[in-house]
Write a structure and sequence with these properties.
With about 250 residues, the chain is an all-alpha fold. The chain has 7 helices and no strands. Helix 1 packs antiparallel against helix 3, helix 4 packs across helix 5 and helix 5 runs antiparallel to helix 6. The longest helix has about 50 residues. The two termini are about 20 Å apart. This is Cobalt transporter CbtA. InterPro entries: CbtA_put. Keywords: Membrane, Signal, Transmembrane, Transmembrane helix.
């Protein structure tokens, strides 16, 4: 049975990854192109502004020439689909393993509802909670010197999200014999309190350059979290569809 669940998870993850890639291509790629255009315009303007003295000595010798990207934009777009497909396969396999562990032990008894609930919880823990503190930025935004710090802080935020959601599930289960409103209150408080404390205590990172278009930044972030929402909705719905015949009600 576990083998069937893993195969089901791999297929659901692969399809969800391709759905997410299609969304990112349609909604996110135009924002990236705009951000790259702004970055290139700024790079072109910087030497022009400060090169009056040495321009004569070095006539156009190095126009920072064309710091050509290692991978073309077309290659990056292809890589978007490839990366999200591989990401979907990996996450789909893990999703199936967690689902198999929870099945019959915790969560809704209905298998489709369990699949959808697990996908929603994963989206909240892994995507939404870290996003509230460290939202995604376009490629033209961010200091390369701080990339390690930003990576570590983001992983810490992901860990906090997972622990908070797990604490909420445990609190709900612990209060199983209580009134429904008390179960939900316990679960909500167990999630929201540690998340709120973490959002306050974790260091701020704001590397958006002055003058960067606010609407472009906002639209890119919406596209980024929308891609993840499409992915987790897809994996939950597809896994639930595959499991519908085995629901125990």
């Amino acid at each position: 049975m576990i083998t069937k669940l893993i195969v089901r998870g791999l297929l659901a993850g692969l399809l969800a990854g391709l759905f997410a890639a299609a969304f990112a291509y349609a909604v996110g790629e135009p924002r990236i192109d705009q951000a790259i255009a702004i970055e290139e315009a700024a790079s072109a303007a910087a030497p022009a502004a400060g090169s009056h003295s040495h321009e004569a000595a070095e006539p156009a010798a190095h126009s920072h020439d064309e710091d050509e990207a290692l991978v073309s934009r077309d290659g990056q777009r292809f890589g978007l689909f490839l990366a999200l497909a591989l990401y979907g396969l990996a996450v789909g396999g893990l999703f199936a393993l967690v689902y198999a562990f929870l099945r019959g032990r915790a969560g809704p008894r209905s298998e489709p509802v369990l699949a959808v609930t697990l996908a929603a919880a994963a989206f909240g823990a892994i995507v939404l909670i870290p996003f509230l503190k460290y939202p995604a930025n376009p490629p033209a935004v961010g200091d390369p010197e701080t990339i390690n710090q930003r990576t570590v802080l983001y992983l810490v935020a992901v860990l906090i999200g997972i622990l908070a959601v797990a604490a909420g599930a445990a609190a709900y289960r612990y209060a199983a014999q209580r009134e429904p409103w008390l179960r939900w209150l316990s679960a909500g408080a167990s999630v929201l309190i540690p998340v709120a404390v973490a959002l306050i205590l974790l260091p701020e990172i704001n590397e958006v350059p002055a003058g960067f278009p606010a609407d472009l930044l906002w639209n890119f972030r919406i596209a980024s979290i929308g891609t993840q929402a499409v992915f987790w909705t897809g994996i939950g719905a597809l896994f639930a569809f595959a499991a519908r015949g085995r629901s125990t009600g």
